[in-house]
Amino acid sequence: MTTAELGSNGVAKGSFGVTGTGDVSGYGGLVRRRPVTVASEKPYGGYFDEVTDALEEAFPEFHDAIEMVVVDRGELTLHVKADRILDVARILRDDAALRYEMCSSVSGVDYLDAADDPRRLHVVYHLTSMTYRRRIRLEAAVTAENPKLPSVTSIYPTADWQERETFDMFGIDFEGHPGLTRILMPDDWEGHPQRKDYPLGGVPVEYKGAEIPPPDQRRAYK
């Protein structure tokens, strides 16, 4: 898969918007728009103001560690500097007014050709407060050239296998992880399949010498 071509209107075509090739992969005809993240302003609504106020009070370095606060589709997301993710997670877990005791998910996102930030790889953490029945998202961004950030397994042990999966699929290095090895792909697999510049086909597989052909070489059903 080649890098998508960007039009003047911010629409990406090519990789996931390929047309006219007989592509049967399910991606043909899709168009990707370059994402632009915009910070929200207070009041955020609901319990979101209580959470951010409590975090600011408990964490004096809030404005240095938090790049922006975004409220979208009924979710509160704190965009955290990658090197401060442990500090923020520890306060969210331990402060009596917050009590985000559980990390239910760690996953990766590749914003290839993002319009406003060269840090295309993002790690997203979903935290849950069982005490207050509240949820929050943390998001940290790194570059594809230096995809490193601290592991949160010392705070949330449930992140162990989830960080391994994110490492496997996106190539993000979680420093301090107790055993950062592949979990879905074979140990000797080259590349990270959920990066958006990973080829959609033409990748040799281990079984019987088979190979997945590129989209433009697959059988077309018309």
From TrEMBL:
Its main location: membrane. Residues 193-222 are annotated as: Disordered. GO terms for cellular component: plasma membrane. Its EC number is 7.1.1.-. GO terms for molecular function: NADH dehydrogenase (quinone) (non-electrogenic) activity; NADH dehydrogenase (ubiquinone) activity; quinone binding. It comes from the Bacteria. The keyword Cell wall biogenesis/degradation does not apply. Residues 78-202 form the NADH:ubiquinone oxidoreductase 30kDa subunit domain. It is a peripheral membrane protein. The keyword NAD applies. Keywords: Cell membrane, Membrane, NAD, Quinone, Translocase, Transport. It is found in: Cell membrane. InterPro entries: NADH_DH_suC, NADH_quin_OxRdtase_su_C/D-like, NADH_UbQ_OxRdtase_30kDa_su. It catalyses: a quinone + NADH + 5 H(+)(in) = a quinol + NAD(+) + 4 H(+)(out). NDH-1 shuttles electrons from NADH, via FMN and iron-sulfur (Fe-S) centers, to quinones in the respiratory chain. The immediate electron acceptor for the enzyme in this species is believed to be a menaquinone. Couples the redox reaction to proton translocation (for every two electrons transferred, four hydrogen ions are translocated across the cytoplasmic membrane), and thus conserves the redox energy in a proton gradient. NDH-1 is composed of 14 different subunits. Subunits NuoB, C, D, E, F, and G constitute the peripheral sector of the complex. Belongs to the complex I 30 kDa subunit family. This is NADH-quinone oxidoreductase subunit C. It comes from Longispora fulva. The lineage of its organism: Bacteria, Bacillati, Actinomycetota, Actinomycetes, Micromonosporales.
